[in-house]
């Protein structure tokens, strides 16, 4: 495995750990800020629609601009938006945070996928894609368990600070990608 591959893989695992902390606890959080079923589904739908539309557009941009910088922009926005959960006390603010998370996803995912594809070794495609697909599922599962523990013994504030901090660490680790050609 080459260094760029490992950097992308490890930083993605770190990011998935941070994001995974919220997991199914998102519904409990949304309900606590006054969201009903329609607002909860609307906020998540907003995230998906923004991420989807902008991924197409930003994916095209990434064909002509630095994928590394687009990835780092997405990771940075994501970490900031995660800290934004600390300010959410009503459904409107939840929609705003979800919108920024959609924007972050649109910057990060196409760029990450492109860079990851370029770093693959032809003779290990199945193994490398297996690490790319399976590892985040495992790490997210561990994150969900840790998130449940944090929420059980502490609070959503502690959970969001932990999530954001892990994502900042992942972004810093991800910035090492700038070293590789």
What is the SS-derived class? Answer: mainly alpha
Q: In DSSP terms, counting alpha (H) and pi (I) runs of 4 or more, how many helices? A: 7
- Major sheet, described briefly? none
**SSE order, one letter for each helix or strand:** HHHHHHH
Percentage of residues in strands: under 5%
Number of strand segments: 0
Tell me what the structure shows.
This protein has one domain (3-179): MFS general substrate transporter like domains (Growth Hormone, Chain: A). α1 packs antiparallel against α5. The longest helix is centred in the middle third of the chain and has 29 residues, at 91-119. By secondary structure, it is mainly alpha-helical. The chain is built from seven helices and no strands.
Give the helices and strands, then pairings.
Elements lengths: L2 H18 L4 H8 L4 H26 L4 H18 L6 H29 L5 H29 L2 H19 L7
Helix pairs in contact: 1-5, 1-6, 1-7, 3-5, 4-5, 4-7
Keyword list:
single chain, 181 residues, Growth Hormone, Chain: A, 81% helix, globular
Question: Would you kindly provide a brief summary of this structure?
Answer:
The protein is mostly helical and about 180 residues long.
């Amino acid at each position: 495995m080459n260094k760029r591959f490992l950097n992308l893989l490890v930083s993605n695992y770190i990011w998935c750990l941070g994001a995974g902390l919220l997991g199914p606890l998102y519904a409990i959080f949304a309900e606590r800020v006054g969201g009903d079923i329609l607002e909860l589904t609307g906020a998540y739908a907003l995230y998906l629609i923004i991420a989807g539309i902008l991924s197409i557009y930003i994916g095209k941009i990434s064909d002509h601009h630095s994928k590394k910088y687009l990835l780092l922009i997405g990771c940075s926005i994501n970490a900031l938006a995660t800290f934004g959960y600390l300010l959410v006390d009503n459904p409107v603010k939840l929609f705003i945070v979800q919108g920024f998370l959609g924007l972050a996803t649109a910057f990060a995912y196409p760029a990450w996928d492109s860079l990851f594809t370029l770093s693959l070794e032809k003779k290990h495609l199945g193994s490398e894609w297996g690490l790319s697909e399976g590892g985040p599922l495992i790490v997210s599962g561990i994150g969900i368990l840790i998130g449940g523990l944090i929420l059980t013994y502490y609070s959503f504030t502690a959970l969001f600070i932990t999530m954001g901090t892990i994502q900042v660490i992942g972004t810093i680790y991800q910035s090492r990608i700038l070293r590789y050609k």
